[in-house]
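Thread title: Can someone regenerate the structure for this chain?

I was given the following input by a collaborator and told the matching C-alpha cells would be attached. They weren't. Posting the sequence so someone can regenerate them.
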Amino acid sequence: MTDTRDRLLDAAADLFYREGVNVGVEALTKAAGVSKRSMYQLFGSKDDVLAASLERVAPGYSATLLPEGSAGTPRERILHVFRVVEEVAPQPGFYGCPFLATSVEIKAADHPARAVARRFKDGLTEFFRREAAAGGAVDPGQVAQQLVMTFDGASAWGVMHGDGVNGQAVRMAELLLDAAGVTPDREPGAGQ
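Best answer:
Regenerated them for you:
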C-alpha cells in the first residue's frame, strides 16, 4: 500500500501544481495508476489527498528555497530565498508557490490543504523573523510578514507575467531589510 500511496501523492502533487486543485478524482487516479477504491482506502477524500500531497512537497520545497547550513549573514540568508525565486520564475513549468496557489484556489478557510499551506507560510515567516532578529531588525516580526508578502507577490507576478521577476524580488527584499536595519555588514547577533 505504501507504493500506491506514494504514486498517488506524487501524481497529486504534480497535477494539482500544474492544473490546479479542481483536477478530478478520475484524472488523479488515472495519472497515479491506482483505482478510486485504493485512493479512498488510503484517504477519506480528494481534499485529504490534496493536503497530504502538499505535506509531501513541503520538505523539498523548503530545501530548495532556504539556504543550507548557517553560513552567511542574516541578510544574505534572507536574500537567498528571493534569489531562488528570481532563478526559478522564468523557467518553464513555474506555477508559483504551491502553497499560495492552493490557498488562492480554495476558498474554505477550514480546508485541510489550507491548514498545510498556513503551516508552511508560518514556517517561512519564522525563518525570516529569526534571521531578521539575528541581523538586528527593529521589528523582526513585522519585517518577516512583509518579506513573506513580498515573496508571495513575486511568486504571483512570475506566474502572471511568465517571464520572471526581473530582479525586483531581491530589490524589494533589500529595501525592506534596509528599512528594518538589517544591513549587509551586520553579523548574526551583533548588537544584541
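The first helix runs from residue 2 to 19.
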